[in-house]
Amino acid sequence: MGLKEKIKSHNRLKKLAHWSILIPNQTRPRLWVKWFVNPFYHKKGKGAYVRRRTRLDVTPWNKFELGIKSTIEDFSAINNGVGPVVIGDRTKIGLSNTIIGPVTIGNDIRLAQNITLSGLNHNYEDITLPIHEQGVSTSPIVIEDETWIGANVVVVAGVTIGKHSIVAAGSIVTKDVPPYSVAVGNPARIIKQYNFETSTWEKIKN
Q1: pLDDT band for position 26 (cuts 50, 70, 90)
Q2: 40-68 pLDDT, tens per residue?
Q3: Which pairs from 177-185 meet CB under 8 Å and 24+ separation?
Q4: Of the residues 10, 122, 132, 164, which is catalytic?
C-alpha cells in the first residue's frame, strides 16, 4: 500500500494531511503548498497565463492543468478540492468565472464573464445534520472543443456540452447539449443544430 492509500485509509492521518495543506474552515491551500508544491505538481502549458487577481484554490491531490496559450482572467476562482480541473489549449476563461471540479474544458473554447461550472452538489438527505456537515457528491462537467459560453451561464454537475456549441448568455444548463447546437434559456433548451447534409444551422421546434 502506497503512502497516499495509507493516508486515505487512516482517519487521523487524513485529517492531519488536510490540516497541513488547507487553511482550517477555508478552501484555500496554505502558502507553503502554493509556493513549493503546486508549481511542481500542476501543469501549465507554454504561453499560458493565470492573471494576478485569479483565486487558485488548488491542491496537490487532484489535477489542475492549463494548456498551451490558454488564459484565466482576473477575479476568477478555480477549485480542484473535490475533483480535477483540466483546461485545454488556446482556451480563454473570462473575468469572474467560478470553476469547481471535476471539470474538463477542451481546446479553443471561450467562456465569457460570470460563468459558474460546478461539478459538485452538497448532500442534504439527513435532516438531523446541517447540510454543510453531510459532505458532497460529484459528477463531472465536460465542455468539448470549440464551444462558446455566454455571460452569466450556470452549468450544473454531470452536464456535457458538445463540440462547437453555443450557450446563450444567462442560460442554466441542466442537461447535455449535443455537438453543433445552440442552447438558450432556463432550463436551457436546444433552438438550433447544424445539419451537415445541408450545411446550414436549422431551427429546432420545441
Answers
A1: low
A2: 667 889 999 999 899 888 888 788 999 99
A3: 179/144
A4: 122
122 counts as catalytic? yes
Between the alpha carbon of residue 63 and those of residues 100, 147, 154, 165, the distances in Å are 12, 22, 22, 26
Nearest Cα to Cα of residue 56 among 158, 143, 132, 48: 48
On whether the CB atoms of residues 71 and 78 are closer than 8 A, the answer is no
Radius of gyration of the CA atoms of the chain, in A: 19
Label residue 127 left, alpha or beta by phi (over 0 means left) and psi (-120 to 50 means alpha): alpha
Specify the pLDDT at position 149.
98
Q: What's the DSSP call for residue 33?
A: H
Asked whether the beta carbons of 120 and 98 are under 8 A apart, the reply is no
CB neighbourhood size of 174 (10 A): 14
Residue 29 DSSP label: B
- CB 99, CB 121: distance < 8 Å: no
Collect all residues with Cβ–Cβ distance below 8 Å to 197 and sequence separation of at least 6: none
- What pLDDT, in 10s, does the model give residues 60-94? 878 899 999 999 999 999 999 889 999 999 999 99
Helix or strand or coil: residue 15? helix
What is the grid cell recorded at 2? Answer: 502506497
* Predicted pLDDT at 20: 64
The whole-model pTM stands at 0.85
Rounded to 5 degrees, what are φ and ψ at 184? Answer: -150, 145
